[in-house]
Structures are given as structure tokens and as C-alpha cells.
């Protein structure tokens, strides 16, 4: 069963509690769901407590909306609540994996960068601050990307490999764990798996980007609950020169569709952190993040979770 | 004797020789210098050598300096002889460098704007996309006048046929212009008549253009624009130059923590509040400049700077993101880009360079590896260049494998046969050597186009490797004399017409960090002074009469030395005796250690090192004379490291030390304006003096009242005492002079009253800062009746309590001042949420 579209209300609440007052704070917020071909953002607001002394917005290099805030009065906590209504249309690739071009041909087409889209995509083929291309990654990719294999087929194979061979473990890594370590220890969270897959794809010359967003989880009776519920989620998008960008979710081994809500994309997490800041004072802090995705359509219209 | 000058000089070298023609004749534009060298007596040349070394050492010109004691201080290397460039040749260089700067600026404007060069295939996208210096957050920012590159430098080399080639572009925050200026000040004074007669072009108007241009493009408000020079700090290898240029250009030298962004504008944190900054000449790498939007792990930057630039509220020069043009891969594409962007051929060729990301280039490079140097295409990789000819079979294979695996990360460049020029042999009365040279030329943007500095930094290769010019690898430098065809413009930045409305009467831009350093400068200078005096008296008594050593005075002195930890505490002695068989060190040895051993925390040497460290942070605010005084002292100590030192030598050193510290104090009294900075320096000095005086007096009171000579000597009050009393020291007049005499600048009451006065003045501007602690103490001092107190047990106890209370108050005030005025300069931290 598949539906054409779904609408959600997404609440993303970030709550910092500081040990001693923060005297001055500046934060960058990437909490506005992107508009794209299959997604529209119908309503959106960000509430900040205490009130920000300054607030400005601009669109970043990757096309994400950024809100920059400054707090100039001492505060012991900071609460940022993003409240959005988002409609997502289906965007599963309309192309059979076995019919896609061999991955080597995709690599060459990307390198020639002869269309505006390919040129734009090409910049996602290089190492970036959070994705270093260390030795070993190309070999890791090569197990799926065998010679002349259709590129989408190989991508789905790599996605499955990560899902099967790596363990979801929220204790094993932090926001800055390098890819090489994830590859060595074979455990991590969605951010780690996305970084790992991106690094593997870039190591063999393909263009892959990091997508941050949310995931609806509605465990159907008897089916396992999807990992990533009630937290930000992250997945990967690969550029197929003859088709365009295709999303894959290595954490859950599936093709994102109307259950995945796109927030922002960039080269890696460092380009899209939902909230990044510099504070003066504050001492130690406690951080609590809560995400709720509420379907606004009738529930029966939603698909069963693909497995 | 001409023949003697050239006795070891290679006259038939395959290289281009700057001074000699092919046949061995002296080139016309070198004739004047040559004749002067021929005519100079060995004695004169020795004096010139000494002059250069003294200037470098005393001005503290360094490269690669780490103030950290474990680090290496490397003095700047400067040859006596300039490199001379004739007028017509310079015109060609000047045109080519200005064109190159214009071209690179246009490339930057495209890369951070429309990116047509990538779309049209004039630049391989991988070169840009793979370069960590392509700062995405800066894309779309259009700087005023579309000027990205305000200060540009290019390294030039001359091939055997005499042609000049560009070998590397410096676009991020080029260093060297300040060193060129310093070289000029030294070398022009070595040969003043020659300098004038052959019409060497002056450098000052170039720096004026830089200053005026920054002011021109800075955002306007009602105030005159405030331009600051942003440095990564004293640990940077070229910090000397930052401080030097800041002082020369009249810009406050600031670190990231001195600046803050509020309301989209950049502000300088000063003692009197926040002051708007309109332009920043940066020497900090661009990715480190803003931890909020750029590298989040940078502790050196200014959070929010990028947004302030984006809003047009501050000019950053060079623009953030200009690092993208560093890395050799760009060189091969410049001819095509020049035709496209400027519609003209590139005036000066770059040394042949291939980016291996192109397949044909990779094959070519691998085929002729022996004649090439392989560099990394992206500066973030920090790989050392590899010379193909240096590799053995295995190294060669390894390199080829790496290049094949990631060809786009490599650049192959032809070797340049550098030109040679004469350098003076410092160890010989009259002899020239030939060394390879390269020239770094500077250009700055102006509203009328790029202006090239008529001169430059000539870099001289070391003996060991004639292929590389690097100050880090033991190279040297030369002044560069560009000859003029017409009259020389003798404008100097040091003489500038300032109208009455431009007069500045107070140091309005005093940053909190500078004030803190001034405060500690005062404290350490005073601490060194009192330690040096104490040790000098002890050594004096030791040299004078060994029998005296059982007397009360000797006991008092040694006791005091122990109190301030110049000598080990008694318990420590016992422990050592118990643990080891070696005899305990003699008192001579212990005292010498207390003077010279910089490893032990509270010795004189260690305190001098702290003084040096603080002075180092303040270098741009101290006059050259101040700096020389401090520099000489620390050099005096490091020269003796590991040598046997006699008591006499130590005594001589202490004499010089006390004298130097008096000189420093004199500068502070006589040479500094009475602004808030001066007040903090003086307050530091007075607090330190007060604490030491109270300690000494309590020690003396507890020790009985015989032999008070040492106490007077220590407080530098013996002359006053003798002139007043003409008798041997007696307790009442001594303690009166040292505690209660308000006219004695060493007395307790003088310090308390002085500090009270400074605090009251600060309070006028900033509100109460602790002066209320002092008023009751001052009152108690004024009510003292020394004549009766000194005679009674209870009176002595009361006096001791009062001095103790004053000591406590001094400690508390020091902390309070620090909290109030300094600690708001605090380290920021980054946070990231999921």
C-alpha cells in the first residue's frame, strides 16, 4: 500500500540547563523544514525562551534556512521550540535498481560536471569537516560496488550491509566520532551510519550528501519499532547523474518516502546541526532534546512500515 | 681589495648572478655598493656587522618565537647587503604583480559569487570543492568595492636567463611586509649616504595607501573608523611582525577575545566599555576567525564575525575565504583565467606547474619525476614538498602509488634554478659568499587599483639546501633596494600632519587584556626589583665578611630570603639531609641558584622570566627602549645557563638588574601618559611593594631592633635616612621613615594612599572598586603613635596586626580588581545539539 502524501505537525524542542548563568550566547538554528519538490512547509514558528535580543535569518550555501539568534542577558536555561506543519509527497525512485547505469559510468558523468545539476552535485564528492576519507573506506564500499554493477543496486546493497553489520548503540559514539572509528567498532547511531555511508561513497568518487530530518514511527501490531523515533534522524542522498538524488536510510535499510521529513542537507552533520552555538559562561550544561511527529491525516491512510 | 672580496665567490655559476655580469664585471646598479665595500676598512665592516646584530637582538626581532621557555627563540637573520633592483626592471615587476593581484581578486569574486569559471570549465571544480579553504558560509558575500584581496604577496624567482617567475601566491594573510620594513630601518642606516645617493625608493607611502584604503572601504558611521590588527597571539611564528605593523600603522593590536559581536557589529572590549570596530586587518587564518559559522574548534576567533561581515557592518581584510587561492594547483590555470577575466595575457609567467587531477598531467609528471617537486594541491594537507631527485627506488614507488590513488591531491612543479646574490661573511674581515635568493613582493588594494610596495622581502637560502627559501629552515633575509629614476618620495608615516580636531588625549581603546598585562607588568617589575635588592644585600654581606654570618643582621636577611622562598625552607633542608648522602649545598651555591636558576619557581630568574612573558604580550605598547632593557636582562641570564658563576659575577648581575629595573620604573614615571593603563601598571607596582614592605617590616619587628641598616637598604631609603639623622639607624626614625612618612615613596602609608587614590579615580568612571577597604586602614596608620608602640609589647603586637591587615587588604584588592576589570575576558565555549 502506498499513499501520495502525508501531513505532519513536528515539534522539536531543545532545552539547555546551565550550571552557572550564561552571560552572552549566539546560536545558529537550522530548524526550518526545507521546501523541495516533494515537501512543503505550511506553517512554521520558532519560540525562544528567554527572548532573544537579536534574531535574523538567511539562507545558507546549501539552501537551508538559518536563524541566527543572540541572547545578551544572563540566563540559566535556554528553550528553543520549533513547531512546523509539513506535507510530504511520495518520492521513491521511479527507476528499477537493475536498470541504472554502472556505478563507474555514474562516477565519470559526475566528474565531467557538464550540467548545472552535476556541477552542484560534484561538490558532495569530496572530504568534508565531518567526513574524512581514510584508507579502508574504499574497500568497504567495493564489496557492494563490484565492477559494472548498476549504481542504485549497489547503493541498496551497501545500505543493507550497514544495517546488517552495524549495531545501533547510542552509547558508543558522540556527535564528533570520526568515521574511521565507526568503521572499526561497527556500532553507532543514525548520524554515524550516514557519515560512514557518505564516506564510503565519496571514497569511490560518488557524490553523497547528509540529510537531517525526522522520522514518523508508528509501530504496527507485531512489527518492530523503527529506530530514530522521537529524535532527530539522519540519512543519506546519492546523486545519480541520469536520474537525480536518491535518498537511502542506512539505519533502517529503507528508501525514505512519506515517513521521512527533510529538515536540511549539507556535506555532513557540521553543515546542518539543528542548533549550534557559542556561549560565554555557563559552566557544565544539561541538554534535553524532544521531537514529536504527529500525523495530521487520518491514520489509516498511512502506509505500513516497509521492512 | 676587490680580489679579496671575491676570493670564495663563484664567478662562473650556471645561476643568474644579481651583482656580476656574465664576464665578471660589476653590474651598473651595484657599482655604488661595490665601491663602498672596496673602500671600507675591516673595522668599519665589523662595526656594521655588530650594528645589525645588536639592532636585531635589542629590538627583539624574531621569527618562530615561542614565549614559552621550552620553545625556541630564533633571532631574525638579516644580511648586511641589500638586494638592488634597477628602476626599469622594477617597473616590469610592478606591472606584473599589480596585474596578478587584480586577476586573483577577480577569481575570488567569481568563486564567491557567480562561479562562472567552474561552469565554463576554466577551473577544474575539484580544485575548489576539494580545498578546505573554500568557505561555504562566505559564498554570496560581496565586500565593499568587490575587494577581497587587500594585502597580497607573491614569491618571485629569477631563472638563469634573467627572467622573473612567480612561484607562489600568498592571498590569506601574507606575512613579511613588516619584516621588510624592519630590515629597511636597519640596513638603510648602515649605508646612509649610499642609500640617499643611489635614490632608493621609500616604503612609507605604501603603508599609507594600505591604511587609507582600509579606512575608505570601512563602513561609515559618525566616528572616524577604528581599524584593528587581529593576531592569533604571541605564540604565532610571525607575532613580532603583527606587533610591529600594528604600531607602525597606528592600529590597536587585538586578539579574538578582545572583540565581541553585538547587534551585528564588532566591538572592542575596552576598560571604558565597548567601542565599535569598523575594519579588521587580519593575521588570523580565515577558518579560525569565527567559531560560530566557521571552524567551531577555534578558540582564537570572534563568534558572529561572518554574519557581521555579511551585514556589511565590518570590513575584514583580507576577506574571509581568500585562502582558497593558496596551494600551487591554481598556477597552471592563471594564463587562461587572465585572458578571460582581464582580456590580456598574463604579464609574468608562473613556474611550470601541473595539477595531477588531469590525467595527461599526471602521466607527464610521473614520466619526468626527477626534474620535479611534488607538492600537495590543498594546503589543508600540510605535506612537505618532495623533490623527485631525492627519492630512492622505494620512496619513488611509494610516491607514485599515492599520486595514482588520489591524483587530485597533488601538484607537480618544475624546479627553479634560483638566482644568486652576494652575502657578507660575518666571520671574515672582507669576504663575500654567493647565496640563492628569492623576492617576496607585496601589493595592496586601493580605490585606484593595486599598489605595489617598492621593495620587498628578499629571502636568502641556507647553505645546506639551495632549492628552498624558508625562514623556518635556517634561511636569512635581505633588505630590497628599488632604485628610482626621479626624485625619491620621502614621505614618512612617522611624520604626519594631524589637525587639532584629531588630537587624542586618552588611550580610549585600551583593551581589558592589555590592562591586565599592564597590571601584572607592574607587579612583576616590582617583585623582581625587591628580590634583586634582597639578594644583593645578602651577597654583599657574604662577600664583605664571612664572620658576620652569625650576626643578627645575617640571620634577618637569610630568614627573609626563606620567607619569600628565595632560599629553601629549613624543613626542606632537613629532609634533604636525611634522604641523601651528598652534603647540603653551601650558602654561596644556594644564593647563586636563587639568582640564576629559572627552574625553581620563586627565584629572581623565574620572576624575570614572568616579567619577560608579560612584557612580550605588551610588546606593541612598550617603547623599544623598555623592551631592550627587559630583553638584555633575560639574555644576561640565558647566556650563563650551565656555566660556573662566581659570587662576584652574581653581584655584578644584581647591580645591573637593579639598575635596569630602576630604568623601567623611570620609563613608567616619565615616559607614559597618565591614562587608565598607567594607573593599572602603577597599582600593580604599589600593591606588590606594599605587600613586600609589610612582610619585611613585620620580619624586622619580630627580629629585634639591632642592625637596621639592611632594612633601610632594602627599602632604598638609606640616603634619606643619613641625610636626615646623620647617625646609625635607630628603630623610631627607621620605622617612622618606612611606615609613616608620606613623602617617602617606599613607605607603607605612601603605597596605601596611592592605591586609594587610583581606586577613587577608577570609581569616578566605573563605580566603587574596593577603595572603601583602604580608608579605615589609612586612618589607623595616621593614628599610630610609633614612639610608644615600639617600646611596649602590646604596641608591637598592635603594629603587627595592622601590617597584617594591610597585607590581607592588598591581596583582596588585587583579586577584586582582576574580577572587575579583567575576567570578563573569558574563554567562550561551543555547544552542539542533536
Structure report:
The complex is a heterodimer of chains A (307) and B (834). Chain A is of the alpha+beta class. In chain A, 21% of the residues lie in helices and 37% in strands. In chain A, strands 1, 2, 3, 4, 5, 12 and 13 form a seven-stranded antiparallel β-sheet that branches. In chain A, a hairpin with a 3-residue loop joins strand 9 (233-240) and strand 10. The relative contact order of chain A is 0.23. Chain B has 834 residues and is of the alpha+beta class. Chain B is 45% helix and 13% strand. Chain B has 29 helices and 23 strands. In chain B, strand 9 (265-270) and strand 10 form a beta hairpin. In chain B, helix 27 (774-782) runs antiparallel to helix 29. The longest helix of chain B has 33 residues, at 512-544. The interface between A and B is large, with 44 and 33 residues. Strand 12 (275-281) of chain A pairs antiparallel with strand 23 (828-833) of chain B.
In short:
The complex is a heterodimer of chains A (307) and B (834). Chain A is of the alpha+beta class. Helix content of chain A is 21%, strand content 37%.
Topology:
The complex is a heterodimer of chains A (307) and B (834).
Chain A lengths: L4 E25 L9 E11 L4 E6 L5 E7 L3 E15 L13 H10 L3 H7 L14 H6 L8 H15 L1 E2 L10 H7 L1 E2 L1 H14 L4 E8 L17 E8 L3 E5 L11 E7 L2 H4 L2 E7 L3 E11 L12
Parallel strand pairs in A: 6-7
Antiparallel strand pairs in A: 1-4, 1-5, 1-12, 1-13, 2-5, 3-4, 8-9, 8-11, 9-10
Helix pairs in contact in A: 1-2, 5-6
Chain B lengths: L1 H4 L25 H9 L2 H17 L3 E2 L10 E2 L7 E3 L1 H25 L4 H4 L5 H5 L21 E8 L5 E7 L6 H14 L1 H6 L6 H14 L9 E4 L8 H11 L3 E2 L4 E4 L2 E6 L2 E5 L1 E4 L22 H6 L4 E3 L16 H9 L10 E3 L3 H9 L4 E5 L9 E2 L5 H13 L4 E5 L4 E6 L7 E15 L2 E4 L4 E4 L15 E3 L1 E3 L29 H33 L7 H12 L6 H10 L7 H10 L7 H14 L6 H16 L7 H25 L4 H27 L6 H6 L3 H8 L5 H10 L7 H19 L7 H9 L3 H4 L3 H30 L5 E6 L1
Parallel strand pairs in B: 3-22, 6-7, 6-11, 11-12
Antiparallel strand pairs in B: 1-2, 4-5, 4-18, 8-9, 9-10, 13-16, 14-15, 14-16, 17-18, 18-19, 18-20, 20-21
Amino acid at each position: 500500500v502506498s499513499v501520495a502524501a502525508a501531513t505532519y505537525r513536528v515539534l522539536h524542542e531543545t532545552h539547555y540547563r546551565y550550571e552557572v548563568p550564561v552571560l552572552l550566547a549566539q546560536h545558529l538554528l537550522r530548524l526550518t523544514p526545507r521546501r523541495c519538490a516533494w515537501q512543503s512547509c505550511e506553517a512554521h514558528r520558532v519560540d525562544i525562551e528567554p527572548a532573544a535580543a537579536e534574531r535574523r535569518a538567511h539562507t545558507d550555501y546549501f539552501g537551508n534556512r538559518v536563524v541566527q539568534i543572540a541572547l545578551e542577558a544572563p540566563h540559566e536555561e535556554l528553550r528553543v521550540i520549533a513547531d512546523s506543519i509539513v506535507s510530504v509527497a511520495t518520492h521513491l525512485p521511479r527507476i528499477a535498481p537493475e536498470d541504472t547505469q554502472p556505478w563507474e559510468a555514474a562516477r565519470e558523468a559526475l566528474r565531467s560536471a557538464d550540467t548545472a545539476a552535476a556541477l552542484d552535485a560534484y561538490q558532495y564528492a569530496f572530504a568534508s569537516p565531518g567526513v574524512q576519507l581514510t584508507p579502508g573506506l574504499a574497500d568497504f564500499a567495493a564489496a557492494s560496488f563490484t565492477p559494472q554493477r548498476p549504481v542504485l543496486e549497489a547503493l541498496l546493497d551497501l545500505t543493507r550491509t550497514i544495517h546488517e553489520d552495524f549495531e545501533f548503540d547510542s552509547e558508543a559514539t558522540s556527535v564528533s566520532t570520526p568515521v574511521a572509528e565507526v568503521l572499526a567498532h561497527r556500532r553507532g547511531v543514525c548520524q554515524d551510519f550516514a557519515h560512514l555511508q557518505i564516506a564510503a561513497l565519496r571514497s569511490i568518487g560518488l557524490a553523497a550528501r547528509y540529510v537531517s530530518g525526522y522520522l514518523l514511527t508508528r509501530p504496527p501490531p507485531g512489527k518492530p519499532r523503527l529506530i530514530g523515533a522521537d529524535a532527530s534522524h539522519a540519512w543519506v542522498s546519492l546523486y545519480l547523474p541520469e536520474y537525480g538524488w536518491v535518498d537511502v536510510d542506512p539505519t533502517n535499510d529503507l528508501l525514505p518516502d512519506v515517513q521521512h521529513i527533510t529538515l536540511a542537507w549539507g556535506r555532513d552533520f557540521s553543515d546542518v546541526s539543528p542548533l549550534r552555538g557559542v556561549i560565554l559562561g555557563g559552566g557544565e550544561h544539561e541538554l534535553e532534546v524532544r521531537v514529536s511527529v504527529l500525523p495530521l491525516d487520518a491514520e489509516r491512510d498511512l502506509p505500513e512500515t516497509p521492512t | 681589495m676587490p680580489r679579496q672580496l671575491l676570493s670564495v665567490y663563484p664567478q662562473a655559476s650556471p645561476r643568474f648572478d644579481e651583482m656580476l655580469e656574465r664576464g665578471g664585471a660589476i653590474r651598473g646598479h651595484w657599482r655604488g655598493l661595490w665601491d663602498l665595500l672596496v673602500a671600507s676598512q675591516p673595522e668599519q665592516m665589523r662595526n656594521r656587522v655588530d650594528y645589525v646584530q645588536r639592532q636585531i637582538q635589542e629590538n627583539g626581532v624574531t621569527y618562530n618565537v615561542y614565549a614559552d621557555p621550552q620553545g625556541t627563540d630564533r633571532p631574525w637573520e638579516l644580511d648586511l647587503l641589500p638586494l638592488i633592483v634597477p628602476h626599469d626592471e622594477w617597473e616590469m615587476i610592478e606591472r606584473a604583480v599589480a596585474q596578478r593581484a587584480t586577476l586573483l581578486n577577480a577569481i575570488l569574486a567569481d568563486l564567491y559569487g557567480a562561479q562562472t569559471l567552474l561552469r565554463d570549465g576554466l577551473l577544474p571544480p575539484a580544485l575548489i570543492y576539494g580545498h578546505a579553504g573554500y568557505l561555504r558560509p562566505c559564498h554570496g558575500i560581496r565586500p565593499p568595492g568587490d575587494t577581497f584581496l587587500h594585502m597580497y604577496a607573491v614569491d618571485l624567482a629569477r631563472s638563469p636567463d634573467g627572467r622573473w617567475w612567480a612561484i607562489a601566491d600568498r592571498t590569506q594573510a601574507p606575512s613579511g611586509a613588516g619584516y621588510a620594513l624592519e630590515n629597511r630601518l636597519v640596513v638603510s642606516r648602515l649605508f646612509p649616504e649610499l642609500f640617499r645617493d643611489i635614490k632608493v625608493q621609500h616604503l612609507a607611502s605604501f603603508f599609507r595607501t594600505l591604511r587609507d584604503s582600509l579606512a575608505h572601504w570601512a563602513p561609515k558611521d559618525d566616528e572616524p573608523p577604528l581599524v584593528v590588527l587581529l593576531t592569533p597571539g604571541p605564540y604565532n611564528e610571525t607575532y613580532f611582525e603583527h606587533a610591529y605593523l600594528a604600531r607602525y600603522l597606528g592600529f590597536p593590536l587585538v586578539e579574538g577575545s578582545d572583540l565581541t559581536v553585538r547587534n551585528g557589529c564588532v566591538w572592542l572590549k575596552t576598560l571604558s566599555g565597548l567601542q565599535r570596530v569598523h575594519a579588521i586587518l587580519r593575521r588570523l587564518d580565515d577558518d579560525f576567525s569565527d567559531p560560530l559559522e566557521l571552524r567551531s574548534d577555534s578558540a582564537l576567533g570572534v563568534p558572529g564575525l561572518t554574519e557581521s561581515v555579511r551585514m556589511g557592518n565590518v570590513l575584514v581584510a583580507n576577506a574571509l575565504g581568500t585562502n582558497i587561492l593558496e596551494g600551487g594547483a591554481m598556477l597552471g590555470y592563471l594564463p587562461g583565467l587572465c585572458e578571460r577575466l582581464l582580456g590580456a595575457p598574463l604579464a609574468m609567467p608562473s613556474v611550470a606547474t601541473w595539477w595531477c587531477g588531469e590525467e595527461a598531467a599526471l602521466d607527464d609528471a610521473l614520466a619526468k619525476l626527477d626534474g620535479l617537486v611534488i607538492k600537495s594541491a590543498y594546503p589543508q594537507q600540510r605535506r612537505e614538498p618532495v623533490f623527485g631527485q631525492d627519492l630512492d627506488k622505494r620512496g619513488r614507488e611509494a610516491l607514485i602509488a599515492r599520486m595514482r590513488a588520489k591524483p587530485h591531491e597533488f601538484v607537480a612543479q618544475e624546479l627553479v634554478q634560483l638566482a644568486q646574490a652576494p652575502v657578507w661573511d660575518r666571520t671574515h674581515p672582507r669576504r663575500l659568499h654567493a647565496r640563492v635568493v628569492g623576492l617576496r613582493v607585496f601589493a595592496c588594494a586601493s580605490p585606484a587599483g593595486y599598489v605595489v610596495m617598492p621593495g620587498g622581502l628578499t629571502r636568502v637560502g641556507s647553505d645546506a639546501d639551495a632549492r628552498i627559501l624558508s625562514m623556518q629552515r635556517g634561511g636569512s633575509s635581505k633588505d630590497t633596494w628599488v632604485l628610482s629614476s626621479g626624485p625619491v618620495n620621502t614621505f614618512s608615516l612617522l611624520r604626519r600632519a594631524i589637525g587639532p580636531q584629531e588630537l587624542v588625549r586618552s588611550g580610549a581603546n585600551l583593551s581589558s587584556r592589555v590592562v591586565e598585562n599592564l597590571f601584572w607588568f607592574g607587579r612583576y617589575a616590582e617583585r623582581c626589583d625587591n628580590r634583586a635588592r634582597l639578594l644583593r644585600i645578602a651577597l654583599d654581606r657574604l662577600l664583605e665578611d664571612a664572620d658576620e654570618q652569625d650576626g643578627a643582621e645575617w640571620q634577618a636577611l637569610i630568614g627573609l630570603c626563606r620567607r619569600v622562598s628565595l632560599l629553601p625552607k629549613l624543613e626542606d633542608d632537613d629532609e634533604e639531609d636525611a634522604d641523601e648522602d651528598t652534603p647540603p649545598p653551601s650558602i654561596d651555591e644556594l644564593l647563586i641558584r636563587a639568582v640564576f636558576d629559572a627552574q625553581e619557581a620563586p627565584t629572581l630568574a623565574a620572576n624575570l622570566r614572568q616579567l619577560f612573558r608579560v612584557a612580550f604580550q605588551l610588546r606593541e605598547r612598550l617603547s623599544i627602549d623598555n623592551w631592550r632593557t627587559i630583553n638584555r636582562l633575560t639574555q644576561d641570564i640565558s647566556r650563563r645557563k650551565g656555566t660556573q658563576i662566581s659570587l662576584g659575577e652574581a653581584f655584578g648581575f644584581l647591580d645591573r638588574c637593579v639598575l635596569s629595573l630602576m630604568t623601567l620604573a623611570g620609563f613608567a614615571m616619565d615616559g607614559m601618559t597618565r591614562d587608565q593603563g598607567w594607573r593599572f601598571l602603577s597599582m600593580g607596582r604599589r600593591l606588590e611593594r606594599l605587600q613586600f614592605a609589610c612582610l619585611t617590616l613585620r620580619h624586622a619587628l619580630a627580629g629585634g631592633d639591632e642592625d637596621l641598616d639592611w632594612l633601610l637598604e632594602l627599602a632604598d631609603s638609606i640616603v634619606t635616612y643619613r641625610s636626615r639623622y646623620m647617625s646609625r639607624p635607630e628603630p623610631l626614625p627607621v620605622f617612622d621613615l618606612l611606615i609613616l612618612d608620606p613623602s617617602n615613596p617606599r613607605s607603607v602609608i605612601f603605597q596605601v594612599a596611592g592605591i586609594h587614590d587610583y581606586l577613587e579615580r577608577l570609581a569616578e568612571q566605573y563605580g566603587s572598586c574596593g577603595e572603601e577597604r583602604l580608608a579605615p586602614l589609612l586612618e589607623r596608620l595616621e593614628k599610630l603613635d610609633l614612639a610608644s608602640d615600639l617600646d611596649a609589647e602590646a604596641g608591637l603586637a598592635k603594629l603587627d596586626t595592622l601590617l597584617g591587615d594591610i597585607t590581607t587588604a592588598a591581596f583582596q584588592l588585587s583579586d577584586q580588581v582582576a574580577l572587575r576589570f579583567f575576567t570578563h575576558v573569558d574563554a567562550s565555549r561551543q555547544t552542539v545539539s542533536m
